[in-house]
Amino acid sequence: MSNLSGTSVICIPRASSNGTAFQFERDKNKSMDNENKAIQIEGRALRIARLDADLYLFLSDPEPMIARLRNSPHRIDIFTFIQGLSETRPKYNYPMEWDNFAAVPISTFENWWDKQIGAKTRNKARMAEKKGISIREVPFDDQLVRGIWEIYNEVPVRQGRPFKHYGKDLDTVYKDTATYLDSSTFIGAFQGDELIGFIKLVADESGVQAGLMNILSKMAHRDKAPTNALLAQAVKSCADRGISYLVYANYAYGNKQSDSLTDFKDRNGFQRVDVPRYYVPLTLFGKLALRLGFHHKLIDRLPSSIASRIRELRKNWLSRKPRSLEEAT
C-alpha cells in the first residue's frame, strides 16, 4: 500500500495485465465520496488513467479526483472521464471530445417489446423459452461464479479476437465478478441446472442508466438464442427499477465500421447517444501527447479502410489458429 497526499487517503494496488488499478479510500469514520473510485492506468510510455468502471459509474465532481491524481506516486500523464446520460451537454472546461453510448430508452417493458424492436427480434427472444431455457435474476454466489467460469473457459477466441477471460482460474473469476456488487444485478440463462449465459448489469449512482458490464453465452447453445432472451430480461429488470436507459457500451468505436455486434444493438433498440469525454493532462508529456493525438490508439488514427482491413486479417488469422493447433495435436 502506498500513501498518497493526505494521511486519511490510502492507495490500494491491484494486479492487472493491462496496467495498474488502485482505489482511494477514506478513514472508516468518513463517508465515501465520488473521489474514492477505483482507477485503471494503461500504457507504458504514455500513462492514461480512467475510472475502472468507466462507462458504468461517473464523477459528479471531477476536481477532487484530479487533485489526488496529480499527487499520486504513480505517474499519470492524462486522466480521462466521460459524462453519463443524465446530462449530455458539456459541463466542464477541460479538453473534450465527443464519445458515445449505445443506449435503449426505457419507459416500460411493453413499450420496448411492442414498439422499439421488430418481430424478428421478438421471435429470437422467445426462442430460448421454446427450447427449454429459463431466464431469471440470480444472486451472486459460488454457484453463479462457477457457471461463469465454465462459460469463460469454453472457447479461446470470441468475435475474432483472443478472449481475455479464457484460461482464468476459479478464484480469479470470482474476484473479477465480485466488483461493484452494491450496484449490480445478475441475470442467468439456464438449461436445467446448467448456466449457459449471463448478464452483469451495473446501475450508476443516479439510477438513470444501467450498463451491461458482461453479457455472454456458451457458443454450444447459440441455436437457442439465450443472449436475446437475457437482453429482454435486462430491459425488464431496468423497467421494474425505474431505470431510464439500458446501455451496451459504445455504439461506435473509433473508426471501426459496423459489424455483427452493431447490428445486434440496432435490432434490439439501441441508439447512439453522444456524450462528452474529457482528457485532462496532468504532466507536460501528457499535454504534448494530447495535442499530437497520441491519446488515441494507433489503429484508431489510421484511415477507416486500412483499419478495417487490419481487423479482418487479424480475425481470419485467429479463426484458423485453433484449427491448426488441434491438427498439431
Topology readout:
Elements: E1 2-3, E2 10-14, E3 19-25, E4 38-42, E5 48-51, H1 63-70, E6 78-82, E7 96-105, H2 109-116, H3 119-130, E8 134-138, H4 142-152, E9 157-158, E10 161-162, H5 170-177, E11 184-191, E12 194-203, E13 209-217, H6 226-241, E14 245-247, H7 260-267, E15 271-281, H8 284-292, H9 298-301, H10 304-328
Parallel strand pairs: 5-6, 13-14
Antiparallel strand pairs: 1-2, 2-3, 3-4, 4-5, 6-15, 7-14, 7-15, 8-11, 9-10, 11-12, 12-13
What does this structure look like?
With 329 residues, the protein is an alpha+beta fold. It folds into 2 domains: 2-99 and 276-328, no CATH class; 107-243, Aminopeptidase (3-Layer(aba) Sandwich). Helix content is 33%, strand content 27%. It has 10 helices and 15 strands. The strands form 2 sheets. It has a 13-stranded mixed β-sheet. The protein has a two-stranded antiparallel sheet with strand order 9-10. Helix 3 crosses helix 6 and helix 4 packs across helix 5. The protein is globular.
Biggest sheet, open or closed, and with what strands and sense?
Answer: 13 strands, mixed
Per DSSP, the total helix count is 10
Average pLDDT confidence is 85
**What gyration radius follows from the Cα positions, in whole Å?**
21 Å
Structural class category: alpha+beta
Strand content: 25-35%
Order of H and E elements: EEEEEHEEHHEHEEHEEEHEHEHHH
Strand order of the largest sheet: 1-2-3-4-5-6-15-7-14-13-12-11-8
Multimerization state: single chain
- Tally of separate domains: 2
What's the total count of β strands? 15
What is the approximate shape?
globular
| Percent helix range | 25-40%
Distance between the termini: 45 Å
Show unreliable segments. 1-19, 22-35, 322-329
